[in-house]
Design brief:
mainly alpha; homodimer; DNA-binding; 10 helices
Chain lengths: 191, 191
DNA sequence: GTCTATACTCTGATAGAC
DNA sequence: GTCTATCAGAGTATAGAC
């Protein structure tokens, strides 16, 4: 329903806009990423952006979805023997794209409003992520978690998000090391 | 330097503005708290607000400072035999003022920019909070932390902030219970 | 379907009158 | 000291050109 043959140009433009938005946000940060700026990079007017995404908030929500797609979030978190490794990989990678961390955190706050287009995104993502982490610990026989899997997953998600806030304000904070110590303390390896 | 005798009216107005802003934000949420809205409640024009605080960002930063003042954050976190109780009290209280939680989280993101007026606020607050928590665990002989006090404090701060993000999107999340379970798992009581 | 031109509203901010 | 009048910029809605 979305793309037939003759809509090829539109689909390409859509992708181009998302990529440009990713680039502008990564480079100039979120606050300077106005519709005008992004439109200028694409070589188009702000209204053209709204033609494809309807609203600025929806555009940014799609940017986050594209990011998850790029990162292959699911396979990385779901497929490993040691579930903590996938999480640590994601955390280390985020260190290299501060603008996207900013966008993610900013929308996480705005999405508190149920009417915000990212509201559903965060609910779904959160659930998927927790299921993957919980399943990982359930599967991993080498560790012995001190908390039930769902609480464990919720705590890890909270720590990862909260450390990002600390890291944005003070980049010397080493997120990966702290999460690693926490996991080892909370789910020690059996022996 | 800030207040001499003849500026009494100005000082009073300043306080009035902060109290009204606290009330409006706590009740109606952050997103509708424009300068115009706040000014309307106080009974002045938006320009009057800027006369006292210079910029919107500085006004909101002062609102957060006033909140800490109201809550008596330091004594609550620093003075107790069991350091976890103070933290849990703060978390439970935050449940009743969602607008302020929203404001706090939003500014925590914006303050990533070192030029933002709240940047220094978050750095200082974060350090004070971690020192209080670390000192509390150091003093508490009934618990045996599995992590060094500073990492412990950083983790608890991150969990508290991260859970607020989850709670804003899904208010059924019980922040206090999760933090309580985490503390018991991470710093079990001796016996 | 794709996009420009234009205009409208709201925002935070400034200059200057009282 | 305080606030009115005004400003430039944001995001958005509409009409209509290609």
């Amino acid at each position: 329903m979305a793309q037939r043959g003759s809509y090829a140009k539109g689909v390409a433009r859509r992708e181009e806009i998302l990529e440009s938005a990713l680039e502008v946000i990564g480079r100039d940060g979120y606050q300077n990423a106005s519709l005008k700026q992004i439109a200028h990079v694409v070589g188009v007017t702000p209204a053209a952006l709204l033609h494809y995404f309807g609203t600025k908030e929806e555009l940014f929500t799609e940017v986050l979805r594209k990011r998850d797609e790029h990162d292959g979030m699911d396979p990385r978190l779901a497929g490993l023997a040691d579930p903590s490794q996938g999480l640590l990989d994601v955390i280390r990678h985020n260190t290299e794209v501060p603008g996207l961390v900013e966008l993610f955190s900013r929308l996480a706050v705005d999405a508190a409003d149920p009417a915000h287009p990212a509201h559903a995104y965060f609910l779904e993502r959160s659930e998927r992520l927790r299921e993957a982490v919980a399943a990982g610990f359930h599967r991993d026989a080498t560790r012995e978690p001190a908390l039930d899997p769902d609480t464990m997953a919720r705590v890890l998600q909270a720590v990862a998000d909260g450390l990002q806030l600390q890291w944005m304000i003070d980049p010397t904070v080493d997120m990966a090391v702290i999460v690693e110590q926490l996991i080892d303390a909370l789910a020690p390896r059996r022996r």
